[in-house]
Amino acid sequence: MDLDRYRELYLRESREHLSRLRALLQASPKGPAPEAVNDLFRHAHSLKGMAASMSFTGSSALAHRLETLFDRWRKGVPASRVEVEAALSASDVLESLLDAVETTGGEEPAAAEAQRTASALEALAAGEAPPSPPPPPPKAPAAEA
């Protein structure tokens, strides 16, 4: 099946779900209201399913990790500030993945960041501290004059 013809629909609907997800996360500085958590879960679930149907594995995996975190909240574990910030960060990475799909047709330009973000969300959803970011690359020595 030629998925190219569905790309625009995928991008439009994914951005709509992502926008609503962000708005729910940003609605309260103390975290999402209990009634908003089901909507968060639904938006993440929709993002995951649409990405999987288009074979965008990075987006699907990252949305799945968001879904897992939101499910933890649905089960009554209060959202921490760190978790909300991580979910917002993940939404930025999902946006980068969508931009990559739009400009290149694939996720590769943002894939590594998506994988790191998914790992951090997985740790948070398991009640663990997220992994530390990798150290910055060493600076090149200054050229001698």
Question: What is the compact description of this entry?
Answer:
This protein is mostly helical and 145 residues long.
Approximate strand percentage = under 5%
Reading the helices and strands in chain order gives: HHHHH
Largest sheet descriptor: none
First and last CA, distance: 59 Å
Which spans have pLDDT < 50 for at least 5 consecutive residues?
none
The shape, in one word, is: globular
Q: Quaternary status of these chains?
A: single chain
Estimated radius of gyration: 17 Å
Integer average pLDDT: 89
Q: Helical content, roughly? A: 55-70%
Tally of alpha and pi helices: 5
Secondary structure: number of strands: 0
Helix/strand/pairing class, anyone?
mainly alpha
Characteristic key phrases:
about 140 residues, mainly alpha, 5 helices, about 65% helix, about 0% strand, globular
Describe the model.
The protein is an all-alpha fold and 145 residues long. It contains five helices and no strands. The chain has helices spanning 7-26, 34-53, 57-74, 81-104, 111-125. Helix 1 runs antiparallel to helix 4 (81-104) and helix 2 packs antiparallel against helix 3 (57-74). The mean pLDDT is 89.
Question: What is the fold's blueprint, element by element?
Answer:
Elements: H1 7-26, H2 34-53, H3 57-74, H4 81-104, H5 111-125
Helix pairs in contact: 1-2, 1-4, 2-3, 3-4, 3-5, 4-5
